[in-house]
Amino acid sequence: MSATGQPTSADFDRYRGMTGRTLVAGMPLERDTLRRFVQAIMDTDPLYVDAVHAAGTKFGEMVAPPLYPVHAFRPPIGGPDPLDVLRTDPDADGSAGNDGMYFGLTPIDSPFKRLLNGGNEIEFFRCLAVGEKCVANARYADVQLKQGKSGSLLLVVIETTFSTEQGERLLVNRQTLIWR
Amino acid sequence: MALRWNEIEVGARAGELDKGRMSSSHIMRWSAAVENWHRIHYDHRFATEHDKLPDILINGSWKQHVLVQLVKDALGPEGWPWKIKFRYRKMDVAGDSIRARAEVVAKQEIDGLGFVTLRVELTDQNGAVSTGGFAIGVLPVPGGPRVPYPFVPKPAFEAVQMPADE
Fold it and tell me: What is the domain extent for residue B78?
């Protein structure tokens, strides 16, 4: 922090290039999880629900939509309940401070409260198949403090590589986050 | 109808999806499917009184899948949605109707594979773009090889440039 209490670039330098712990999904992709997912995005492609149809495609088996891996990580059994905070703080937003963007990274400690999603750049290699577990490795690709029209803002790019447990890449997601 | 390499024309419509009017139930179904318990997506009082939003929000995480589905469907079962980038330009809330559309902006053949660049957009019932960007898909070329799966890009493929943000 500066002498005036304002954040400075030096406050965030340590995050640039920082990698997170490897995150392994608690469960392999299950058919019923996939059913609920594709019903929610309203994609009726039989590839996702019909094993016989899927066997005749280039995939050879039922797979999830290409971008599914970003949602493959759920609270593990025995872990902390993300809704516990609502017992003591009725105004908590329910996100437990993490809307599925850190993927094993240490969250950035900053005075900014308002978060905007600045967009995504994604490269796809293959789909996660039913029965496979997803693995995520994230890093802070860029962290910059900038001056906007209405004050300081923190621009953060998180690059997350999603793979199978065997190390086959599924996709790489570069997500830009903006804190004001 | 999926794109066919020989019939692709720059400027032509490449695909369209109509997700219809998104009720609070549709939004809640998504939140439940991915276990996202952020209250701005299902708790009207919290969204409007606490966060001062106009209504509960349609998740950006849902909208990104619509764009990917748009590209995947446009390319068909023999194609591959290699890259996509998009930015969120405005909020969508319960009651908004969501449509997606894709338009061809470029095509290029490399090593016997066809690369098509698409402009992709989500619009609401007033035609306002809430999410927009570009995608690069890969298609087989008549007489050429199948699009490999898994898709492991060759260095030569990097010649296909993603357009700059608009």
Answer: 5-21+64-159
Q: Which positions in chain B touch A97 (Cβ < 8 Å)?
A: none
Q: Is A81 on the interface with B (CB under 8 A)?
A: no
The CA distance from B142 to B128, in Å, is: 38
Q: What value does the mean pLDDT of chain B take? A: 96
Interface contacts (A, B; CB < 8 Å): 106
Nearest CA in chain B to A68: B65
Domains in chain B: how many in total?
Answer: 1
- The span from the CA of B103 to the CA of B46, in Å, is 38
- Top-tier CATH class for A9-179: alpha beta
Residues of A in contact with B82 (CB under 8 A): 123-124
The domain spanning residue B117 has which CATH number?
Answer: 3.10.129.10
pTM assigned to the model? 0.94
Q: Which of A156, A154, A158, A160 is nearest to A172 (CA)?
A: A160
Residue ranges of the domains in chain A? 9-179
